[in-house]
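INPUT
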Amino acid sequence: MINRWKAQGGGLGVRALARLDAAFNGLYTWRFNPLYHSGALVVACFAVLLATGLYLLLFYRIGAPYESVAAIDAQWWGGRWIRGLHRYVSDLAVVAAILHGFRMFAQRRTWGPRALAWVSGLVLLGIFFVCGWTGYVMAWDVHGQALAVEGARLLDALPVFSEPLGRAFTGEESLPGAFFFMNLFAHIALPVGIALFLWVHVSRLARAQLLPPKRLLWGTVGLFAIAAVAWPPPLGPEADLLKLPATMPADWVYGFWLPVARAMAAGWVWVVGGSIALLALLVPVWTKPRAEKRPPPSWVNPRYCTGCEQCFLDCPYEAISMVDRDDGREGLVGWVDPAKCVSCGVCAGSCAPMGVGPPGRTGRDQLARVKDFLAEARPGSGDVVVVGCMHGAAGSVGSTAVATGLAAVDGLAGAPASAEAQEPRVFPVGCAGNLHTSVIEYLVRAGAGGVMVAACPPRDCRSREGVKWFNERVHHGREAELQDRVERRRIAVVYAAAGEGRVLRDGVERFRSRILAMEEAPAERDFDVGVECELDEAVP
Amino acid sequence: MIARRAAAALLALAMTAGIAWLSRVPTNFGADADAVIRLSWRVEGVPVEACRTRTEEELAVLPVHMRSPQECASAIAPFALDVVVDGKAAVRDTVFPKGVRGDRPVYVLRNFPAGAGRTALSVRFEAVLAEGAEPGDGVATIYAWDGEVDLAAGDVALLTVDGAKNLVLRTPEAP
Ligand code: HEM
Ligand code: SF4
Ligand code: SF4
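OUTPUT
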């Protein structure tokens, strides 16, 4: 089962995710699809929590916890909705974090160099939970009481405390101010831990996108503020240790475990909860493909490297550094740290002399492959060649692609797309960012009517920045840029996520009509796309 | 276009309302009973010293300077807890002192489901002393309470030990 999943190039739930993404893209466009920004939304929530929390802190008193929160709630013009926003956004943070984690899981971004992000992400989620619980205890209403009493029961099952914590909540004595002080301290200190772990979480990523685009950010904050104003969360009755809990307004995001835990012996709660946590923490181990299936890390061929630093700038995982050459030549040479490289292949697209990339996916490998492809597919003036990222619509093997007519996307280079000549030929690549622009040049100059690059929506790029760099290389002259001599009219880009076969097909159809309206594409023979390599001659 | 925008707005509203709702679901975590009688206290352990006279043979193998005729071990005594609710034995248990070496205080925390109304309760908490064991001076070895508890639905009656080392009952009405 696990092996089948690993072989599919996507995790459990990847199809569900594709459908959901497609639906959200349809409604919000890929730019503002909240699912693509779930991690960044958590950071946005964190910022809102800090701002609203600071306000609440001005009025909170450990000597009269419930009364002070009730007083905040009585400020209809301020405290009430700020407290509501604080609370609703803390729920959104957890929901978004779970969606974000699920996305990473389904897309198999879990192992190898990403293990650090995976584990620190889980720690972050854990801190969010504990911080939320302390927040509810701060208010000291019946919900806070339920959380505190159950939490103390569970902690007492651990051989840690000499005096059982549960005794604080038996009603023998009223709770000491020290308790509310400690709780408040934790509620304030834990966000420091969140900031710290967030730093660890994105430490392996270059240019981590920490906030969602402005419209999504303010739209989300606005909606939750409206909810807080229009439908402020109720404050439950004050906690009373000598009363049994009656019906209360409970938070099911932070308190989902309460009914389950209460029905179990404390020891079993630890066994079950611990097992689930362990299983999640070990995801990087059990999702790691077998050695022979693992994509190999990138490698710089010092023979071709001119030391231009472009791959060093472009690598989304900061896996490349520039080091002194040891081959007797002057200057620097790129060096890939295999422990940091996720094998995304983005560097291959950034190297004009084609001297870097994971084995089999360098610019040179792509050129060799495209020559074979052309020999077999022979696209003519009326044909569109789809250069497709296999994580996107062009790679939705056997599902949407077939349904929408791209029957042979799973056939590799050179395979005729289908019996009907109308079907586009598909040249697969691992990522639009992996694609070397010379491949596009080669296809166009060889006489293909048009080349359509089918990329994933930029924020859904599994290489993080592949689509961004691809666009810059094609449209803005970023190294390794698409040469001016290539006719731009014959090139198109479509963003089509895995579940968006229809978007891809419509894009191809529109592009094909444009191509057919153009004059015949000139086919060059025996040309060379000119692999830049200043040092090539210098090296034996 | 307008339909798409309307659907997008509606879904955004629904998701927001959904999350807000999750934050405030009216929930009853299911009390196990109408009311509860809670026994909760902490008492200092009863240190006891148990001594035994050594036999001639035992003395003979000991170094000369260690040949005291008595062998004594000090420990904290466990307590027997006996609870009778409405004439029926609810608990008969031994409670040991906390701590790895068993030298910490003795804690009791038990909840008994009870119906609303009047419940007869009899509690006895008594140190279990081995034969020949002597508790230290001024240490309480027996705590007992007998009487009736009046409870309304949702109440918790708390039986605890007060400063004068007596079992006392506290209810929401008489805290
Ligand atoms: C709870 C708070 C969390 C926050 C604030 C957060 C935030 C982020 C952000 C901002 C990124 C960078 C996105 C980018 O620029 O591409 C990221 C990446 C990542 N997150 Fe989280 N995350 C959280 C929880 C989680 C959880 C629970 C998991 C999984 C269990 C997780 C797994 C990952 C992984 C694996 C990456 C790296 C993605 C890649 O390699 O391309 N995160 N996170
Ligand atoms: S992009 Fe190519 S040439 Fe430039 S530093 Fe990297 S490997 Fe060397
Ligand atoms: S394959 Fe990706 S992660 Fe590895 S060095 Fe190249 S750009 Fe960086």
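end of record. The first strand of chain A starts at residue 248 and ends at 250.
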